[in-house]
Specification:
By secondary structure, the protein is an all-beta fold. It has no helices and 14 strands. It has strands at 9-14, 19-25, 31-36, 42-47, 51-56, 61-67, 74-78, 85-90, 95-99, 104-109, 116-121, 127-132, 136-141, 146-153. The strands form four sheets. The protein has a four-stranded antiparallel beta sheet with strand order 3-4-5-6, with no helix packed on it. A four-stranded antiparallel beta sheet has the order 7-8-9-10, with no helix packed on it. A hairpin with a 4-residue loop joins strand 5 and strand 6. It is globular, with a radius of gyration of 16 Å. The N and C termini lie far apart (41 Å).
Length: 162
């Protein structure tokens, strides 16, 4: 047996009827997160298999696989206010920025001491907020990999940010 399990994937739902309309499968390990590109048919999925897949919602097919930006499970993906840049966070303690036109990593932010559990886009500028396993919250300008406003620590583990 190849060890590949075609069951790893995510479902797209019709919220009007509370029913799945398609299943996007192709990852070879668990899917931790997904993010849709606003005003687009593109969905990105983050997986334990260290890859990100880009999917076409209309056809339910993967049109690109992003690999090489992380060395461990990818826990989070988001689009930081730029349709051609995707951000990902991983248990390798890093954030990677990807050019979705070339499917190559643009840069890697190596400034965390624990897993990057969740990324969310900043509302008014190209950037992301990162929730990290060491109970810290950091904001990054994705145009220049610059930390914004310093690090904020919390007394307990942060699981997600919005």
């Amino acid at each position: 047996s190849s060890g590949i399990n075609a069951e790893y994937g995510l479902a797209l739902w019709d919220t009007s009827y509370s029913t799945p309309i398609s299943v996007l499968s192709g990852h070879v390990a668990g899917v931790w997160d997904c993010a849709g590109l606003e005003d687009s048919q593109v969905v990105a999925s983050a997986s334990e298999d260290c890859t990100i897949r880009l999917w076409d919602r209309r056809t339910a097919t993967c049109f690109s696989t992003l690999a090489g930006g992380h060395t461990d499970s990818i826990l989070s993906v988001c689009w930081p206010r730029d349709q051609f840049v995707l951000a990902s966070g991983s248990t390798d303690c890093n954030i990677s920025l990807w050019d979705t036109r070339t499917c190559k990593p643009l840069t890697r932010v190596e400034a965390h001491s624990d897993s990057v559990k969740q990324l969310t886009p900043l509302p008014h500028q190209p950037g992301v907020m990162a929730s990290v396993g060491d109970s810290s919250l950091k904001m990054w300008d994705t145009r220049g990999d610059m930390e914004l406003h310093g690090t904020r620590s919390f007394p307990s583990d942060l699981e997600c940010v919005a």
